[in-house]
């Protein structure tokens, strides 16, 4: 018996309790313990086995850290088959999360009971795999093909009540998993309840699998695992026997296990947990934040205030005058109405949030109690400095003063106050109450407990927080500027914006860069280009077709026209015919002879630009590790999760090939395509970005 599973005999019942914190993952020790426990119970003549988890959960799934390593016996599929074949009654008692292999162990048991708060599901597709221990065969038998397909292809966590309705569990009871499990098992023994192996049930009803496969594939924007899982459920219906179905499931599971997408998604799983754990903050206590201030109630300020209200923080929002304050209040109300419509809050919560915890004011004196203030006024250094001087004069000692600036220097902003140690960047993404990313921008003098408070606030607002150093655009916007430039250069050289958008949506982005620019507003980039023009290096290539659009007053979706023309009531837009004229004019003016770009070449240049700038961001210490960059792109810029992030993608493609291509492009434009020193170093040493992640750099 291993320590991970403790065996105990209570009368006729052998109790197997899992003790493998934090989530009772089904690693090798747990699997061996369960197998040994079942055998011992049989040998000792017990009449039943009760399986449950100590600590916070039943089994949360296979141990993901074992993936990619040689499999050790017993494997989970064999273990599940053995549990199901046990000649005594097997009961599982569920609490916390019964996920993936965890639910598969429960489905191999003959009876299932759960506490009301238990959640269960088969979320493997979100890791780029699919259930591989009989889940695709047993779930449709007990819950029906349609329910199983929905649960398996979405990976959704189902609450106990719904699982009961769908027949996945047999009973719900209040209490500890041990107590409710023992009571239920005793009752079953008293009733002489029969063993109930799901493998003995008849095959489930078939559905139109080809149609569902196509639908699921399209929904995944290139992610394969949900679609492949459909074929495994199909086998449950069509294979000659249960065991044939299990064999088919195993083949498909192994195919996905070998895939790059599995590597990308598991990288994302661990990185999103690792990204906000900063060793230097391990012993630093964050400051208390109960009341928040927000300066400016435009797009961002209203979104940040909404996010704070949704997380039960009191908010004081300062605007320039009463009229602007009323408009800001309206924006927050609209945001909260959206949350109400989506079922995130109920009417009573909506009413409460719009009254007591929200104060609109025009006088900074209203901020006297605020523990943390986020400034979200116009992107102009003079205005920001003025606001921070006012904050310095009005906020209590110890209050944290944060800026939501997209590009400006936090050190310069901090210098407008007498307390630069309390100043930090908290860079939210639009819409701030929806987008998951928060860049915590640490300036030269920012105090460690201010950084810790930034991360604590991010957690409270349910954001993925990433530490960034100070530079123009921080991690995300700096990298975005680089791949946007690559896209603009390709258009000037002959690719069309629509080709590039199509290639990038084909790669897995929800939108291509030109559709995104239309959505964000073309005037934003235009203003930035004008601001930078005086300091631009003469060696840098200039692209004018976007300026021509702006000069014509076409700023994208908000004016109904940009790279695309938008019709009211229609989703998306059609290509704007004027864009081709502007591009041709730009080419003529600059004496550029357009060339044809193959789709592969478009993708390669776009991604090489992204990877190269990302490597510079890591090399300069702006991002702590490659995985920090990956999480910024995933949570702030719609990078397809199944690639894990640009630097995981780069590792999967091979860094030497990427560097070779960058050097090839540099022959055309040596200014833009300067290889990142870190990339050159890694290639020379034969190392990967993941090696840097693992070294904790
Ligand atoms: N294997 C290994 N480690 C795991 C794990 C797993 N299945 N699930 C969670 N962990 C680790 C996390 O990495 C984290 O480690 P850290 O403290 O070092 O960062 C720790 O456990 C706690 O996890 P969370 O921070 O996520 O804790 P939460 O309480 O927020 O969430 C959870 C708990 C809902 C169980 C969540 O961790 C989760 O969703 N886990 C993954 C569940 C899953 O996908 N299971 C399927 C696995 S694949 C499988 O079973 C294949 C089979 O079909 C053959
Ligand atoms: P916006 O123009 O929508 O809103 C700015 C608001 O600030 C206006 O309501 C204005 O009345 C108010 N304001 C200006 N000066 C003020 C002052 N002295 N005191 C109080 N209020 C004042 O701008 P937006 O888009 O909300 O941007 C705000 C900041 O957030 C900028 O720094 C921007 O770079 C940054 N940001 C913007 C993002 C976006 O997608 N819009 C994303 C992330 C950051």
From TrEMBL:
It comes from the Bacteria. Residues 292-467 form the 3-hydroxyacyl-CoA dehydrogenase NAD binding domain. CDD domains: crotonase-like. The keyword Cell membrane does not apply. SUPFAM superfamilies: 6-phosphogluconate dehydrogenase C-terminal domain-like (SSF48179), ClpP/crotonase (SSF52096), NAD(P)-binding Rossmann-fold domains (SSF51735). Pathway: Lipid metabolism; fatty acid beta-oxidation. One of its GO terms (biological process) is fatty acid beta-oxidation. GO terms for molecular function: (3S)-3-hydroxyacyl-CoA dehydrogenase (NAD+) activity; enoyl-CoA hydratase activity; isomerase activity; NAD+ binding. It is found in: Peroxisome. Pfam families: 3HCDH (PF00725), 3HCDH_N (PF02737), ECH_1 (PF00378). Its main location: other. It catalyses: a (3S)-3-hydroxyacyl-CoA + NAD(+) = a 3-oxoacyl-CoA + NADH + H(+). Gene3D superfamilies: 1.10.1040.50, 2-enoyl-CoA Hydratase, Chain A, domain 1 (3.90.226.10), NAD(P)-binding Rossmann-like Domain (3.40.50.720). InterPro entries: 3-OHacyl-CoA_DH_NAD-bd, 3HC_DH_C, 6-PGluconate_DH-like_C_sf, ClpP/crotonase-like_dom_sf, Enoyl-CoA_hyd/isom_CS, Enoyl-CoA_hydra/iso, NAD(P)-bd_dom_sf. PROSITE patterns: ENOYL_COA_HYDRATASE. In the N-terminal section; belongs to the enoyl-CoA hydratase/isomerase family. PANTHER family: 3-HYDROXYACYL-COA DEHYDROGENASE-RELATED (PTHR23309:SF51), 3-HYDROXYACYL-COA DEHYROGENASE (PTHR23309). This is Putative fatty acid oxidation complex subunit alpha. It comes from Phaeobacter porticola.
């Amino acid at each position: 018996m291993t320590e991970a599973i403790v065996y105990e005999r209570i009368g006729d019942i052998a109790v197997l309790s899992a003790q493998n914190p934090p989530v009772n993952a089904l690693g090798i020790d747990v699997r061996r313990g369960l197998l040994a426990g079942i055998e011992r119970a049989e040998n000792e003549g017990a009449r039943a086995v009760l399986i449950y988890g100590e600590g916070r959960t039943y089994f949360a799934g296979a141990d993901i850290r074992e993936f990619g390593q040689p499999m050790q016996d017993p494997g989970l599929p064999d273990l599940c088959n053995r549990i199901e074949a046990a000649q005594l009654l097997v009961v599982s008692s569920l609490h916390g999360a019964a996920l993936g292999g965890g639910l598969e162990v429960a489905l191999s048991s003959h009876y299932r009971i759960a506490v009301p708060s238990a959640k269960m599901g088969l979320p493997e597709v979100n890791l780029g795999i699919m259930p591989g221990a009989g889940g695709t065969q047993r779930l449709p038998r007990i819950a029906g093909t349609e329910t199983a397909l929905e649960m398996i292809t979405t990976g959704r966590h189902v609450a106990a009540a719904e699982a009961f309705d769908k027949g996945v569990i047999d009973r719900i009871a209040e209490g500890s998993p041990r107590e409710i499990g023992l009571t239920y098992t005793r009752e079953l023994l008293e009733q002489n309840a029969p063993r109930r192996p799901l493998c003995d049930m008849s095959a489930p009803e078939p559905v139109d699998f080809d149609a569902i496969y196509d639908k699921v594939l399209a929904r995944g924007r290139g992610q394969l695992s949900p679609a492949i899982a459909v074929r495994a459920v199909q086998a449950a219906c069509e294979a000659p026997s249960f065991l044939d179905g299990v064999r088919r499931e195993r083949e498909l599971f192994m195919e996905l296990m070998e895939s790059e997408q599995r590597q990308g998604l598991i990288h994302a799983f661990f990185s999103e947990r690792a990204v906000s754990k900063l060793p230097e903050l391990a012993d630093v206590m964050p400051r208390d934040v109960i009341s928040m201030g927000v300066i400016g109630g435009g797009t961002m300020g209203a979104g940040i205030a909404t996010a704070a209200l949704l997380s039960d923080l009191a908010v004081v929002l300062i605007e320039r005058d009463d009229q602007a304050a009323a408009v800001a209040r309206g924006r927050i109300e609209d945001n909260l109405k959206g949350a109400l419509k989506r079922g995130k809050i109920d009417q009573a919560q909506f009413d409460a949030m719009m009254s007591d915890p929200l104060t609109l004011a025009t006088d900074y004196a209203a901020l006297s109690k605020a523990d943390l203030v986020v400034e979200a006024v116009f992107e102009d250094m003079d205005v920001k400095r003025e606001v921070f001087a006012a904050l310095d004069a009005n906020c209590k000692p110890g209050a944290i003063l944060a800026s939501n600036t997209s590009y400006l220097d936090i050190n310069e902003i901090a210098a407008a106050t007498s307390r630069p140690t309390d100043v930090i960047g908290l860079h939210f993404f639009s819409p701030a109450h929806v987008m998951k990313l928060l860049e915590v921008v640490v300036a030269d003098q920012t105090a460690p407990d201010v950084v810790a408070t930034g991360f604590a606030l991010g957690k409270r607002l349910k954001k993925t927080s990433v530490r960034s150093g100070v530079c123009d655009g921080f991690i995300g916007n700096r990298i975005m500027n680089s791949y946007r430039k690559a896209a603009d250069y390709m258009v000037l050289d002959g690719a069309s914006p629509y080709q590039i958008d199509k290639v990038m949506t084909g790669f897995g982005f929800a939108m291509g860069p030109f559709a995104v620019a239309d959505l964000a507003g073309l005037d934003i980039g235009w203003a930035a280009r004008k601001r930078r023009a005086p300091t631009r290096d003469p060696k840098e290539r200039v692209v004018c077709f976007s300026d021509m659009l702006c000069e014509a007053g076409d700023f994208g979706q908000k004016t109904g026209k940009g790279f695309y023309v938008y019709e009211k009531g229609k989703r998306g837009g059609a290509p704007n015919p004027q864009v081709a004229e502007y591009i041709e004019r730009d080419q003529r003016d600059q004496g550029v002879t357009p060339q044809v770009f193959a789709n592969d070449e478009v993708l390669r240049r776009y991604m090489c630009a992204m990877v190269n700038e990302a490597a510079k961001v890591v090399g300069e210490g702006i991002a702590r590790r490659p995985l920090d960059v990956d999480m910024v792109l995933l949570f702030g810029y719609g990078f397809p999760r199944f690639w894990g992030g640009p630097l995981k993608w780069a590792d999967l493609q091979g860094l030497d090939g990427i560097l070779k291509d960058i050097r090839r492009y540099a022959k055309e434009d040596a200014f833009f395509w300067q290889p990142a020193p870190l990339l050159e170093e890694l290639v020379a040493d034969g190392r990967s970005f993941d090696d840097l992640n693992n070294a904790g750099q």
